[in-house]
Amino acid sequence: MLRLENLSVTFNANTVNERKALKNINLKLDSGDFVTVIGSNGSGKSTLMNAVCGSCNIDSGKIFVGGKNITYAKEHRRARYIGRLFQDPLKGTAPNMTIEENLGLAYSRGKKRSLSIGISNRDLKLFREKLAELDIGLEDRMKTPVGLLSGGQRQALTLLMATIVTPKLLLLDEHTAALDPVTADKVMSITEKIVKDNNITTLMITHNVSNALEYGNKTLVLSQGNILAYIEGEERANMSLSKIMELYADSSGDTLTDKMLFQ
Ligand SMILES: Nc1ncnc2c1ncn2[C@@H]1O[C@H](COP(=O)(O)OP(=O)(O)OP(=O)(O)O)[C@@H](O)[C@H]1O
Ligand SMILES: [Mg+2]
């Protein structure tokens, strides 16, 4: 579903601040793969996602989604089939609009119909059902402005908005990092349910190494713009938190920080 061929990204090329953020990355995600991404600060995780969704320029290489070469596709076009979530719960929703209006906007993505036509009763029923599945009571607050929701409620809603039209690819960049541990767990289980129910090919960056091994079916380990490991199957099943930290320290000379260890 996603294929990267020899992808390289350099920031501030040919200046003293030159930084090779991604070095010749080759990566393949099969349809339905849920890949967790770990690596120390500055290892290129966010840049990888930025390159895939077209929000940063690449030096060279190719990007394929669903077999189609999208290397030169515009960012807003890619947004029609790539869902994205960030660490900041304030991103991705319009705070002054209600829950149902936000969902209406998300639902019209990629369709000709615009919000000005209004939200049909059938759509409202669908939104209500989808909100009820989140199991956090948002289905009874559909006329509430999104700005009044808590961070966790907003991330759950943003997740629903990113997936209400099933995307070909879902990119999650530390989307639970700004939440308290209990809320983060809740949003993670909602994430897992949505991804599984809709069989969405997903890349999820996390600093929580335990989460990286617990969720999804593959783990990508990045260090200084390189792929250090792409772990799956039995190797992944047998991978412990300490083993992966050791592997990282040995092969990168860098330390992988695990959020859980510092809470
Ligand atoms: N817009 C930019 N301009 C210049 N340098 C950048 C830019 N974006 C990222 N970089 C640099 O590229 C490298 C990779 O950054 P990136 O944001 O991908 O790291 P990351 O793995 O997501 O880190 P973190 O865990 O801190 O979010 C870093 O050295 C960073 O400073
Ligand atoms: Mg990042």
From the 3D structure, determine the CATH topology of the largest domain.
Rossmann fold
Q: State the distance separating the first and last CA atoms.
A: 36 Å
Based on DSSP secondary structure assignment, what is the total number of beta strands? 10
The main pleated sheet reads as: 6 strands, mixed
- What's the structural domain tally? 2
Report on this structure.
With 263 residues, the chain is α/β, with parallel strands linked by helices. It has 2 domains: 2-81 and 167-262, P-loop containing nucleotide triphosphate hydrolases (Rossmann fold, 3-Layer(aba) Sandwich); 94-166, no CATH class. Helices cover 34% and strands 23% of the residues. The chain has 9 helices and 10 strands. The strands form 2 sheets. The chain has a 6-stranded mixed sheet, with helices on both faces. Strand 4 and strand 5 (68-69) form a beta hairpin. Helix 3 (99-107) runs parallel beside helix 5. It is globular, with a radius of gyration of 19 Å. It starts with a strand and ends in an 11-residue tail after the last helix. The model has no long low-confidence stretch (mean pLDDT 91). The structure holds adenosine-5'-triphosphate and magnesium ion (MG).
Quick summary of this structure?
With 263 residues, the chain is an alpha/beta fold.
List keywords for this structure.
263 residues, alpha/beta, Rossmann fold, 6-stranded mixed sheet, 4-stranded antiparallel sheet, binds adenosine-5'-triphosphate, binds magnesium ion
Q: What is the element layout, followed by pairings?
A:
Elements: E1 2-11, E2 19-29, E3 34-38, H1 45-53, E4 60-65, E5 68-69, H2 75-78, E6 82-85, H3 99-107, H4 121-134, H5 151-163, E7 169-173, H6 181-198, E8 201-205, H7 209-214, E9 218-223, E10 226-232, H8 233-237, H9 241-252
Parallel strand pairs: 3-8, 3-9, 6-7, 7-8
Antiparallel strand pairs: 1-2, 1-4, 4-5, 9-10
The structure holds adenosine-5'-triphosphate (ATP) and magnesium ion.
